């Protein structure tokens, strides 16, 4: 099992990775962040994506769907933003991994696969 820092480092090895964050979407707290840089403030991006996750969870509840979100993809002109909700966590933790990717360097299918693997190995 991997800790938060190890998992974030592994996510940054995904081809095209710009930045990654682990976020608690009930509190909005960022539990860890890596990458980003001058053009991508990962803390601001993580906070904004907290609102996206909350809205989608609320929508599923209002629709009465007995289903869970695997991931959310936001496609920009030059980037992919991948939000992966962590499943099966103890104590009802409401966490997600947020990964920003360069669109012209990333393989989206492979990135989703690698993020799923990172999730399965993450120990919080």
The CATH architecture name reads: 2-Layer Sandwich
- Tell me the quaternary state: single chain
Coarse shape: globular
CATH C-level class is Alpha Beta
Q: H/E series, N to C?
A: HEEHEEEH
| Count of distinct strands | 5
Q: Could you give the order of strands across the largest sheet?
A: 2-1-5-4-3
Radius of gyration: 14 Å
Strand content: 25-35%
Question: CATH homologous superfamily?
Answer: Dynein light chain 2a, cytoplasmic
Helix count equals 3
Taking the sheet with the most strands, its summary is: 5 strands, antiparallel
Give the termini distance in whole angstroms: 9 Å
Percent of residues in helical segments?
25-40%
Q: What low-confidence regions span 5 or more consecutive residues with pLDDT below 50?
A: none
- Integer count of domains: 1
- What is the fold-level CATH name, i.e. the topology? Beta-Lactamase
Summarize the structure in words:
The protein is 36% helix and 27% strand. The protein is an alpha+beta fold. The chain has a single domain, classed as Dynein light chain 2a, cytoplasmic (Beta-Lactamase, 2-Layer Sandwich), CATH 3.30.450. A five-stranded antiparallel β-sheet has the order 2-1-5-4-3, sandwiched between helices. Strand 1 and strand 2 form a beta hairpin. The longest helix has 22 residues. The mean pLDDT is 91.
Name the descriptors:
Beta-Lactamase; about 120 residues; 5-stranded antiparallel sheet; globular; single chain; alpha+beta
Blueprint (SSEs and pairs):
Blueprint (H helix, E strand, L loop, with lengths): L3 H9 L4 E8 L5 E6 L6 H22 L7 E5 L3 E7 L9 E8 L5 H14 L3
Antiparallel strand pairs: 1-2, 1-5, 3-4, 4-5
């Amino acid at each position: 099992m991997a800790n938060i820092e190890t998992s974030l480092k592994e996510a940054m090895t995904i081809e095209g990775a710009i930045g990654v964050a682990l976020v608690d979407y009930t509190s909005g707290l960022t539990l860890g962040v890596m990458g980003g840089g001058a053009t991508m403030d990962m803390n601001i991006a993580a906070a904004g994506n907290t609102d996206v996750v909350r809205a989608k969870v609320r929508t599923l509840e209002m629709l009465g769907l007995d289903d869970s979100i695997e991931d959310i993809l936001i496609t920009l002109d030059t980037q992919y933003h991948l939000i992966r909700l962590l499943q099966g966590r103890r104590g009802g933790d409401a966490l997600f991994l947020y990964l920003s990717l360069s669109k012209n360097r990333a393989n989206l299918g492979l990135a989703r696969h690698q993020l799923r693997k990172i999730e399965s190995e993450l120990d919080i």
